[in-house]
């Protein structure tokens, strides 16, 4: 069930709830369109030689039933890999119960690819960024690499792993703060709507 949605700069954000293996979860859904074909976006999101051009480099057995790890970040199991439309996996980070991430690709109206990324977690705090610690909420944490994915698909980033060219510049920090504010607003609206529905 979607509780709220907001759109800005081509990114649609929804906050909702769903049940996952760990229990009743909060969800963050990001929806955006890319000009590249579904097959091209799928390849960029699942080919280990391409993922690290816009995201962290995964290690492990990268197939359905396999496990992955992102050094210094998350790990998990690949639950489904149905090319070129669906990738589902668990997302294990820190001491939190395993979250669930689903990437869905479909043809967009007018051409290109509609990408939907849904992250579901039973953790209460995973949606909102914390300016005091600099921790990004999950929405911001996914939106920033999805920006890099768009730049990569357009040939605007270096043809090298992000570890060789990404820098946490003041511009990146500002963009993350702006996105964090948008997700915080979405959470506030969702909470207000849930009170009205109670």
UniProtKB/TrEMBL annotation:
Superkingdom of this protein's organism: Bacteria
Domain Activator of Hsp90 ATPase homologue 1/2-like C-terminal: 36-154
Name this polypeptide is given: Activator of Hsp90 ATPase homologue 1/2-like C-terminal domain-containing protein
TM region(s), chain numbering: none
Gene3D superfamilies found in the cross-reference section: 3.30.530.20
CDD domains, per the entry: SRPBCC_CalC_Aha1-like_6
Provenance organism: Nocardiopsis sinuspersici
Sequence similarity: Belongs to the AHA1 family.
């Amino acid at each position: 069930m979607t509780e709220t949605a907001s759109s800005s700069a081509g990114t649609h954000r929804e906050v909702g709830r769903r049940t996952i293996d760990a229990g009743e979860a909060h969800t963050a859904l990001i929806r955006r369109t890319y000009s590249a074909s579904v097959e091209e976006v799928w390849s960029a999101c699942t080919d280990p030689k391409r993922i690290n051009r816009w995201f962290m480099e995964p290690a492990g057995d990268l197939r359905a039933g396999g496990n992955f790890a992102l050094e210094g970040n998350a790990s998990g199991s690949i639950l489904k890999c149905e090319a070129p439309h669906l990738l589902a996996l668990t997302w294990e980070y820190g001491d939190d119960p395993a979250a669930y991430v689903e990437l869905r690709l479909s043809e967009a109206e007018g051409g290109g690819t509609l990408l939907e990324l849904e992250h579901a977690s039973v953790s209460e705090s995973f949606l909102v960024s914390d300016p005091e610690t600099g921790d990004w909420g999950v929405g911001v944490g996914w939106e920033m690499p999805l920006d890099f994915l768009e730049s990569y698909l357009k040939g605007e980033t270096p043809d090298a792993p992000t570890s060789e060219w990404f820098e946490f510049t003041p511009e990146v920090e500002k963009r993350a703060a702006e996105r964090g504010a948008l997700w915080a607003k979405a959470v506030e609206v969702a909470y207000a709507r849930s009170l009205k529905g109670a």
